[in-house]
């Protein structure tokens, strides 16, 4: 399983990129709004940091296929690594079909059922993004959806990649890897949590103490 970082914060993206663990970035309208900066400028900066797929979503207020197609074409022009993120609606599927036919990669987002994932894949999505944490939030096990989509794509030889989205903690990450997700898109805070183990910290302290006791600094 590969990792993308799920943020529009350039500093967090730099930190994760320097660690060598991410190969792509996902953003959404809420993450862009949180930064309070111009969309094109933020996306161009991100693309100059990470050499991999960067998902930029059409405006949250654009709901018709024609509007999504026009915006998608503009997003794709920002950088060759751009992926256009489109919400899972009938209009979104129509936009996916057109953009994919033009060679533009599409990430269909806000997926909460296996059927939505199947439709998105058949419309030509390069990526489908099922939201794990938001399903957990309503007491429906999100990981079951990831596993089901992975099984269905395997059975039918579907090549769209599964991006586990709405990943909220390190247990989610391990579960996604076991469930067969191709990618987990993870906030920087979770990547940082994943690096930690109390026995690692204790081990470093003991090695330092033992070394200093004999050799000093
Ligand atoms: C990424 O593609 C999604 O937009 C994101 O993971 C949503 O996460 P959240 O449910 O924690 O907002």
From TrEMBL:
Catalysed reactions, semicolon-separated: D-sedoheptulose 7-phosphate + D-glyceraldehyde 3-phosphate = D-erythrose 4-phosphate + beta-D-fructose 6-phosphate
Gene3D superfamilies: Aldolase class I
Enzyme Commission no: 2.2.1.2
Class in the EC hierarchy, top level: transferase
Domain of life (superkingdom): Bacteria
Keywords: Cytoplasm, Pentose shunt, Schiff base, Transferase
Record flagged with keyword Transcription: no
Lipid metabolism is among the record's keywords: no
An MF annotation (GO) of this entry: transaldolase activity
Primary location class: cytoplasm
CDD domains: Transaldolase_FSA
InterPro entries: Aldolase_TIM (IPR013785), TAL/FSA (IPR001585), Transaldolase_3B (IPR022999), Transaldolase_3B/F6P_aldolase (IPR004731), Transaldolase_AS (IPR018225), TSA/FSA_arc/bac (IPR033919)
Location of the protein in the cell: Cytoplasm
Entry GO CC: cytoplasm
Database matches in Pfam families: TAL_FSA
SUPFAM superfamilies in the cross-refs: Aldolase
Gene Ontology biological-process annotations: carbohydrate metabolic process; pentose-phosphate shunt
Catalytic residues as annotated in Swiss-Prot or TrEMBL: 85 (schiff-base intermediate with substrate)
Pathway listed: Carbohydrate degradation; pentose phosphate pathway; D-glyceraldehyde 3-phosphate and beta-D-fructose 6-phosphate from D-ribose 5-phosphate and D-xylulose 5-phosphate (non-oxidative stage): step 2/3
Matches recorded under HAMAP family: Transaldolase_3b (MF_00494)
Cited PANTHER family: TRANSALDOLASE (PTHR10683)
Membership in a protein family: Belongs to the transaldolase family. Type 3B subfamily.
Chain's role: Transaldolase is important for the balance of metabolites in the pentose-phosphate pathway.
This protein's name: Probable transaldolase
Lineage: Bacteria, Bacillati, Bacillota, Clostridia, Lachnospirales
């Amino acid at each position: 399983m590969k990792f993308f970082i799920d943020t529009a914060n350039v500093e967090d993206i730099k930190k994760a990129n320097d660690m060598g663990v991410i190969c792509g970035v996902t953003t959404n309208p809420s993450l862009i709004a949180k930064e309070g900066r111009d969309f094109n400028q933020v996306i161009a900066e991100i693309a100059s940091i990470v050499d991999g797929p960067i998902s930029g979503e059409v405006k949250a207020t654009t709901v018709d296929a024609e509007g999504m197609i026009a915006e998608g074409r503009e997003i794709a022009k920002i950088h060759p690594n751009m992926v256009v993120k489109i919400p899972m609606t009938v209009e979104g599927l129509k936009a996916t079909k057109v953009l994919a036919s033009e060679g533009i990669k599409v990430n269909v987002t806000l997926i909460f059922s296996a059927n939505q994932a199947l439709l998105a894949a058949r419309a030509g999505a390069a990526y489908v993004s099922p939201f794990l944490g938001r399903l957990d939030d309503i007491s429906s096990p999100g990981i079951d959806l990831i596993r089901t989509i992975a099984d269905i794509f395997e059975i039918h030889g579907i090549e769209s990649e599964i991006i586990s989205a709405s990943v909220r903690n390190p247990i989610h990450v391990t579960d996604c890897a076991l469930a067969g997700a191709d990618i987990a898109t993870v906030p920087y805070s979770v990547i940082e949590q994943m690096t930690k183990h109390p026995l690692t910290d204790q081990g470093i302290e003991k090695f330092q103490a033992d070394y200093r006791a004999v050799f000093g600094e």
